[in-house]
């Protein structure tokens, strides 16, 4: 698929993290989404339900930058997941409208699905001025640059991460 260069950059940066099996990114207009549609099947299940319900539906010119990340089932992937969870928390604390959340399909569909459908969504919500996606693409590029810079700044932590000791009081 041909993505704008900013979107491809974000996908490439996230895909370089250890244990990332796949990454996809697409902006979605939220302005026409209603709370009633959240119970519909398919892509409606992956929308940020709480955000849409809180505002009574998508706001005018509201865009969701939704980045889907699928991790391998490895220790390296767990470390990258923890890194991204920190990065999202840090960005949100600095005023960005961003969140990260897990999504999965039911444990059983036509067959057992439990164990193979977990993915994580990085979601950034913004209001776009016009139809050109200029603010969206600028935000996507900022996300890519920030994740890449943070990864470089903390590369040694990936090479020698702390061990989980079972002591939950220290978390």
Report on the structure:
The chain has 171 residues and is of the alpha+beta class. The protein has one domain. It has helices at residues 5-15, 49-54, 75-93, 134-153, 155-159, and strands at 20-29, 62-71, 98-103, 119-127. It has a 4-stranded antiparallel β-sheet, covered by helices on one side. Helix 1 runs parallel beside helix 4 (134-153).
Brief characterization of the structure:
This protein has 171 residues and is α+β, with helices and mostly antiparallel strands.
The tally of beta strands, per DSSP, is 4
Along the chain, the helix and strand elements come as HEHEHEEHH
Unreliable stretches, pLDDT < 50, 5 or more residues?
Answer: none
Tell me the radius of gyration: 17 Å
What order do the strands of the largest sheet run in, or round the barrel if closed?
Answer: 1-2-4-3
Oligomer: single chain
Q: How would a crystallographer describe the biggest sheet?
A: 4 strands, antiparallel
Helix tally equals 5
Distance linking N and C termini: 40 Å
How helix-rich are the residues, as a percent range?
A: 25-40%
Number of domains: 1
The amount of beta strand, in percent, is 15-25%
Structural class: alpha+beta
Mean pLDDT across all amino acids: 93
Shape designation? globular
């Amino acid at each position: 698929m041909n993505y704008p260069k900013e979107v491809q950059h974000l996908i490439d940066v996230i895909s370089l993290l250890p244990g990332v099996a796949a990454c996809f990114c697409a902006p979605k207009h939220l302005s026409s989404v209603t709370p009633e549609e959240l119970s519909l099947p398919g892509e409606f299940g992956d929308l940020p339900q709480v955000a849409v319900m809180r505002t009574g539906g998508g706001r005018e010119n509201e865009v969701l930058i939704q980045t889907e990340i699928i991790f391998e089932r490895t220790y390296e992937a767990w470390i990258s997941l923890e890194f991204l969870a920190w990065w999202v928390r840090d960005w949100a604390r600095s005023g960005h409208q961003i969140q990260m959340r897990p999504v999965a399909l039911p444990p059983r569909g036509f067959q057992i699905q439990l164990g193979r459908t977990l993915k994580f969504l990085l979601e950034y919500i913004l209001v776009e001025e016009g139809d050109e996606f200029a603010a969206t693409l600028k935000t996507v590029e900022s996300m890519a640059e920030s994740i890449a810079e943070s990864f470089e700044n903390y590369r040694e932590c990936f090479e020698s991460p702390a061990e989980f000791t079972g002591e939950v009081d220290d978390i």
